[in-house]
Amino acid sequence: MVELELEDGLAVVTIDRPHARNAIDPHTMGELERTLDAAAGARALVVTGSGEKAFVSGGDLKELARLRTAAEAAGMALRMRTLCDRIAAFPGPVVAALNGHALGGGAELAVAADLRIAADDVRIGFNQTKLAIVPAWGGAERLARLVGPGRALLLAGTGQVLEASEAERLGLVDVVLPRADFARGWRETARALATAQAGEIKNLTTRNRPDREAAAAFARLWVSKEHWEAAEKVMSRGR
């Protein structure tokens, strides 16, 4: 089951399969597709899991074991890669709220987001090698962009699973919060990012855009009602 919460420009997508540690199966992929369709138009997106044990524990091996041919395996991998690509290409900021462990495919889903906020007792790892397979949902390439090619090879090649604090040190996780503050913390950050200007900043920081495009984005926001209301508040404090 995949749930969608929409509030004030923020879309929160929750993978809710506690019986399978929020693992992804073909049915869940279909629900994710429909949920992302429904989230279109939101200014920011959060992807998280239910409970405190797992963000996403990877692919649901019991369900995916039905895939016995190379063509079937490739089709599944490309379908989920497309979903991760959609998340990465979401127009506004995307936050992966790591409520629990993000392992294998779960780590791949996490790095499709623009930033990762983790509870301090969470672990994250690209441990597909333990199953004699490789990341196939775009995670290897995104991991390399975050931590560098050599470190990505080391992490994914050995299947090392990191504590949240170590993942933060390496740049794989952006913010680590105490468990007691986690739910409030990621929501505060996501709400702060659910703005037009944060979407423009995402464009400037994640895409190679010419200077004129950056100036055009600034100009669009400069003439907006929101800018002048905020400016008036600042100027009125100095009077």
Automatic annotation (TrEMBL):
PROSITE patterns: ENOYL_COA_HYDRATASE. It comes from the Bacteria. SUPFAM superfamilies: ClpP/crotonase (SSF52096). Transmembrane segments: none annotated. Signal peptide: none annotated. Belongs to the enoyl-CoA hydratase/isomerase family. This is Enoyl-CoA hydratase/isomerase family protein. It comes from Streptomyces sp. 900129855.
